[in-house]
Amino acid sequence: MSDEQKIQRNYYAIIPANVRYDRDLIPSSKLLYGEITALCNEKGFCWAKTQYFQDLYGGSRVSIQKWLKSLEANGYISREVIYKENSKEVDKRVIRIVNTPDKEKLATPLTKVNTPSKEKLTENNTSNNTINEEEDINIKEIYTKVSVLYEENNDDGRKLLQVYHYLKNANVYIDDIRKIIEFLYENTQYLNTQCIITQHKACVFQAKTDEGLFDYAKFFLNGLQIRYKNQLLENIETTDQFNKAFGIKELPKIPMHNWLEGEKT
User: Which of 13, 116, 150, 152 has the smallest number of CB atoms closer than 10 Å to its CB?
Assistant: First the structure.
């Protein structure tokens, strides 16, 4: 039986006040912290993989990694890669709960600092590079969709680009933005300012509730379709109204495929 199959959860998750009210944490990472406490055994650690949390919450790999990184960066968990004996093959990735001191104390330098091994640094760098590569792929896929409409001098292409910038500036994860852009590319009737902005605000509100928000793209697109259907047809906005609402005065005049092919512009 694999370690993943042996994972046993306690009935209760513990989310202490310092975690619940920490404004530096990504909201969804707080619930993830509670899940980690439920998974940790009496020794205070667990070895759940990213895929386990993906299956549990329905989030993307990039989203789960960002939640974990948020907890680690703020001192609530530590992660360690354990290799098989006399090998560079990963045996398991251990997550430990850290008894967090006050943030003021975190600023005090420690007398002794344990330097991580080269193997661990390599693993961390590989993980970061993988995330960056995934983000680059997502961005290229987004611009591929935009460029198809953009080069046809289609207003929908410009609108799609505006939606991308709007969500990017709102710090929406790039993987979620890609899913939204792909849907809007196939269903351009939903390119409606009021519906898009209102639904994004609904997502932000949902993330702050006890239930949380585990799949931004899914929640956004489901709500967007409902809002659009409920909106009176005579209120469909013009392109000028759309552009004014997003506040983007000028857009690139170059064909997007040049950027994708790496040509100098």
Answer: 152
